[in-house]
Write a structure and sequence with these properties.
- The chain is an alpha/beta fold and about 300 residues long.
- The protein contains 13 helices and 9 strands.
- The longest helix has 28 residues.
- The radius of gyration is 21 Å and the shape is globular.
- It starts with a helix and ends with a helix.
- One of its GO terms (cellular component) is cell envelope.
- One of its GO terms (molecular function) is metal ion binding.
Length: about 300
């Protein structure tokens, strides 16, 4: 077992030290760190790295005082093509790494595999049994997957710091109780969404649309452009506008982090056509609660579907 007094806060110190040495032109770290509390933890405080902020709040709540959690990408825009040296230091001292997988964060999967510290890795895609070919890899938008990943993280935390196992079990029990309003909201929306249609400018929306049973009317070419992060063709935009104007879409889900351009144009067309518009984001607000974030979005969607008749 590693020694908590020596390791507590080591990730944060490594990140600060390497970031301070970035005058040579190397990219700075965009990582954020939430420190554990050795005085309040009944076992070893573990160093945990999370690839993207979509999973951060879940991991922070499960780890509590017994985990120092470093999140590499706080927003989709922060996700790197490769891990900078300051962030690689976090992987090198990590006890546990939590990644999404399914091609979403290959940079983090690679950094964990190449780490000098050989951390335990929890991959959401492996927990979910998801193949690499899934069209929408944002597994935190799949309601059935989230509790499975939480359970897998808890098991690994307890194995790595066995003296804190009862603490981690209690954290998991409390978090599971907090999740229940989200589970109930999804179930209620699923009951009310039968036969309804949607279109979206947010690629992460796909898993939730399927979970709710909403029929996707986003033109296939437009979806491909979202998934490849490329500009949609004029024909695909025209097809999207036609679907909105002709009543094929009951609700438009707009990327709340995207401003200007095509996203705004489609919002304007939807509003002119009387199609309700709701905003979802790929990640929760920085340091925000996963459950509160999803509940707020689902409430807006429920209201939009009700307004749409």
């Amino acid at each position: 077992m590693r020694h908590a007094p020596l390791r507590a806060g080591l990730t944060a110190l490594a990140l600060l030290a390497l970031s301070a040495c970035s005058d040579d032109g190397a990219p700075d770290s965009a990582a954020t760190v939430t420190s554990g509390d050795p005085a309040a933890c009944p076992g070893e405080v573990l160093d945990v790295v999370v690839s993207v902020a979509a999973w951060s709040d879940v991991v922070r709540r499960l780890g509590g005082d017994c985990a120092t959690v470093t999140t590499i990408a706080a927003s989709p825009a922060d996700a790197p093509e490769d891990v900078v040296p300051a962030d690689r230091a976090a992987f090198d001292v990590a006890d546990l790494v939590v990644v999404n997988g399914a091609r979403y964060d290959e940079w983090a999967v690679g950094a964990a595999a190449e780490s000098d510290g050989d951390p335990v890795v929890v991959t959401a895609a492996e927990v979910a049994g998801s193949g690499a070919g899934r069209p929408d890899p944002q597994l935190w938008y799949e309601p059935e997957v989230v509790p499975e990943v939480a359970a897998a993280v808890t098991r690994e935390l307890a194995t790595l710091s066995p003296d804190a196992e009862p603490y981690f079990d209690a954290q998991h029990t409390a978090w599971t109780a907090e999740l229940q309003p989200y589970v109930a909201a999804v179930a209620a929306l699923r009951d009310g969404a039968a036969g309804r249609t949607c279109a979206a400018t947010l690629t992460a929306w796909g898993p939730m649309a399927r979970a709710l049973g909403l029929t996707q009317e986003t033109p296939s070419g437009f979806l491909r452009s979202l998934r490849s992060e490329s500009e949609p063709s004029a024909d695909d935009v025209d097809a999207f506008e036609t679907a909105l104007r002709e009543g094929a879409v009951d609700v438009l889900v707009r990327d709340g982090a995207a401003g200007g351009g095509t996203a705004d144009r489609l919002r304007d067309v939807a509003e002119d056509a009387g199609v309700p518009v709701v905003e979802f984001t790929e990640f929760p607000p920085e340091d925000g609660s996963f459950v509160e974030w999803q509940l707020t979005q689902l409430a807006a969607l429920s209201e939009a579907l009700a307004d749409g008749g």
